[in-house]
């Protein structure tokens, strides 16, 4: 089986295993996803979803958050870790959205990359989840699983993994495929415990089966 054939088979099986997927960060506006994905660095989505409730209650829109004291943002988001740098990025990002984009999140990948604290993973998440554009989100689950499954060979650098997957995964499937890898990585092909290969829908096509 070629990598292209393997990729299509993995996409199909994960789609059947996890038919309804989406981002596990809670948001109802694009700017809130931008904030949450910055807070999610080295923090669980579950914790971010709790912390942002206080943040949005006090600062309910882009303008309010742009005007907020960075120290107050830091106080609220501190439970997510790296509070100082995350607060600084969020403040600067909201100011740019307010001043350059009328409070809206740009729907251009390269424009997103220019925002403070936004890297390729975050920009892809925004493009896929908010704007419905093709996206490959190379988080830790994605990188671990595509290496184990054999879609990439020993590549750990996020951008290189992303570029490799663009060649294998149909563009319209990319965003949901990456979300499904998150669910599969949490429930079955785990990082901190031995993978549960016996309950894996990819067991017969995965070279790491039982390893």
Mind explaining what this structure looks like?
It is a single chain. This protein has 211 residues and is an all-alpha fold. The protein is 56% helix and 0% strand. Helix 5 (70-77) crosses helix 6 (83-100). The longest helix has 18 residues, at 83-100. It starts with a helix and ends in a 24-residue tail after the last helix.
Secondary structure: elements and pairs:
Blueprint: H1 3-17, H2 30-39, H3 45-58, H4 62-67, H5 70-77, H6 83-100, H7 109-113, H8 120-129, H9 140-149, H10 158-166, H11 174-187
Helix pairs in contact: 2-3, 2-6, 5-6, 9-11
CA radius of gyration: 18 Å
Which term fits the overall shape? elongated
Ends apart, CA distance between termini: 20 Å
Helical proportion, percent range: 55-70%
Structural class: mainly alpha
Q: Based on DSSP secondary structure assignment, what is the total number of beta strands?
A: 0
Question: Which structural traits does this protein have?
Answer:
211 residues, mainly alpha, elongated, iron-sulfur, nuclease, hydrolase, EC 4.2.99.18, Nth
Summarize the structure.
With 211 residues, the chain is mostly helical. It has 11 helices and no strands.
């Amino acid at each position: 089986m070629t990598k292209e054939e393997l990729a299509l088979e993995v996409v199909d099986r994960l789609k059947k295993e996890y038919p309804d997927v989406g981002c596990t960060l809670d948001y109802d506006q694009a700017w809130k996803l931008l904030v949450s994905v910055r807070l999610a660095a080295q923090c669980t989505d579950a914790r971010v979803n709790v912390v942002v409730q206080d943040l949005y209650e006090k600062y309910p829109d882009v303008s309010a958050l742009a005007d907020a004291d960075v120290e107050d943002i830091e106080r609220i988001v501190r439970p997510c870790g790296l509070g100082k740098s995350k607060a600084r990025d969020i403040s600067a990002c909201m100011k740019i959205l307010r001043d350059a984009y009328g409070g809206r999140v740009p729907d251009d990948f390269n424009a997103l990359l220019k925002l403070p604290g936004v890297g390729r993973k975050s920009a892809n998440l925004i493009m896929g989840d908010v704007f419905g554009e093709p996206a490959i989100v190379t988080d830790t689950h994605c990188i671990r699983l595509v290496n184990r499954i054999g879609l990439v060979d020993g590549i750990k650098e996020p951008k290189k993994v992303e570029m490799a997957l663009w060649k294998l995964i149909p563009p319209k499937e990319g965003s949901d495929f990456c979300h499904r890898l998150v669910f599969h990585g949490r429930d079955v092909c785990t990082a901190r415990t031995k993978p549960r290969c016996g309950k894996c829908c990819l067991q017969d096509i995965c070279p790491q089966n039982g390893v």
